[in-house]
Design goal:
This protein has seven helices and 20 strands. It is mainly beta. The longest helix is centred in the middle third of the chain and has 9 residues.
C-alpha cells in the first residue's frame, strides 16, 4: 500500500441569502459560480457534502472513504475509536453580507437523544471585519425559558442577547447550546464538529422572492439552549510569532494558531491525531519526509496521523490555524 501523505481537497461552495463576495475577493477562491457565496466548505465529512482529494494518488476519493480505508493511520487511534465512519471535524469559511439567523446547535447528549448524530460545538476565527461589524454570542443578562420566549414572541429577542464588536484576529468559541448570530461585514474561519444540525430561532422577518419566510425551529431550539452566562464571550490569546499558540481546547477539537516569518519544525509524535492546517494569510510550503506541498490563503491541508515530523516554511509570511482531535 502506498504511504499516506498530506492531502488537499476541492472546496464546496454554498449560496446563502446573506452571502457576499469576500470568499472570492479576500480569499482568492474565485472559481465559485455562486452570486451570493456565503460559505465554502474546505474540509468536510458531512454526508452528501464530502470534500474530495485533489492531489496525489488518492485524488478523487471522498474524505470518509479514506477514514474507512486507512482508519487510525489517517485520523489517530482516539478519533477512529470514537468516529469509525466519518471524519470528526468540519472546516469552512463564512462571509456575511447580512445578518445570519439567530440560532443554536444541540450538544452531544441532545443529538444522541434525537438520533441525529453528534452535537455541534464550533469556534470562529475572524479574518476580516468591516468597521462596526458585530456578532451575537449568548445572553447579556440572566434569563429563563419563560423570559426568553416572551422576548422572542415580541420580536425583541436581540435586547437580551450579548452583542460583541468584531475585529480581524478575534476568536469566539461557540459551544453547543449557545445562542449566536453573525452580523454583516465579517469573513471568518469556522472550525466545528461534523454536523449540519442548526435550529433557527429568528430570521429577522426575512422573506424570499415569493414572500415566504425560512422555517424556524422554536420548539427544537428551546431544549438545546444553554442560558448560562460565562465570564467572557471573547477568547483571549497571546499574539506571538513563530510559536504554536493555543486558541481553543475542547472535547471536540483543539485549535492553535501559528504566525510565521521564518521556518519552523513541527514534532507531531505526541499527538495521536490527524493535523489540519488552514491558511488564513500569506502562503507556505509544508515539507515532509517524502516531499512537499504548497499552501496558500484559503486552502486547507490534512496531515495523516502517521506523519510525525514536518517543516513549515513561510513565503515570506503566513498565518495558519492548526486543528486536531484532542
Amino acid at each position: 500500500m502506498n504511504l499516506l501523505y498530506p492531502l488537499k481537497f476541492t472546496p464546496i461552495f454554498k449560496d446563502k441569502v446573506w452571502g457576499g463576495d469576500k470568499i472570492r475577493t479576500e480569499l482568492g477562491l474565485d472559481f465559485s459560480p455562486l452570486p451570493n457565496c456565503g460559505e465554502v466548505w474546505v474540509l468536510s465529512g458531512v454526508e452528501g457534502f464530502q470534500t474530495v482529494v485533489s492531489n496525489g494518488f488518492l485524488e478523487g476519493n471522498e474524505l470518509n472513504d479514506l477514514v474507512e480505508i486507512y482508519m487510525d493511520d489517517l485520523v489517530g487511534e482516539k478519533a477512529f475509536e470514537q468516529f469509525p465512519e466519518k471524519f470528526p471535524i468540519l472546516v469552512k469559511f463564512i462571509d456575511s453580507h447580512d445578518w445570519l439567523s439567530i440560532q443554536v446547535h444541540p450538544d452531544d447528549a441532545l443529538a444522541a437523544k434525537r438520533k441525529i448524530g453528534n452535537g455541534k460545538t464550533e469556534m470562529w476565527y475572524i479574518l476580516d471585519a468591516d468597521k462596526k461589524a458585530e456578532l451575537i454570542s449568548g445572553f447579556n443578562q440572566s434569563v429563563n425559558q419563560k423570559i426568553y420566549l416572551d422576548y422572542l414572541e415580541q420580536k425583541r429577542l436581540k435586547e437580551i442577547l450579548n452583542v460583541e464588536s468584531v475585529h480581524a484576529g478575534d476568536v469566539f468559541f461557540m459551544p453547543a447550546g449557545r445562542v449566536h448570530a453573525l452580523g454583516p461585514g465579517v469573513l471568518l474561519a469556522e472550525i466545528q464538529q461534523t454536523s449540519d444540525t442548526t435550529y433557527r430561532i429568528y430570521d429577522w422577518d426575512r422573506t424570499d422572492g415569493e414572500g415566504k419566510s425560512r422555517e424556524l425551529h422554536t420548539d427544537l431550539a428551546l431544549e438545546a439552549i444553554d442560558f448560562t452566562i460565562p465570564d467572557n464571550y471573547r477568547t483571549t490569546y497571546a499574539k506571538l510569532k513563530n510559536q504554536t499558540v493555543n486558541l481553543v481546547e475542547s472535547t471536540a477539537f483543539t485549535t492553535n494558531i501559528l504566525e510565521l516569518d521564518h521556518g519552523i519544525k513541527k514534532d507531531l509524535e505526541y499527538i495521536d491525531s490527524f493535523i489540519i492546517y488552514l491558511c488564513t494569510s500569506g502562503s507556505c510550503s509544508i515539507q515532509f519526509l517524502q516531499g512537499m506541498e504548497e499552501l496558500k490563503k484559503g486552502e486547507v491541508i490534512l496531515i495523516p496521523a502517521t506523519i510525525d515530523h514536518l517543516f513549515i516554511l513561510p513565503k515570506p509570511k503566513t498565518k495558519l490555524l492548526e486543528i486536531y482531535y484532542p
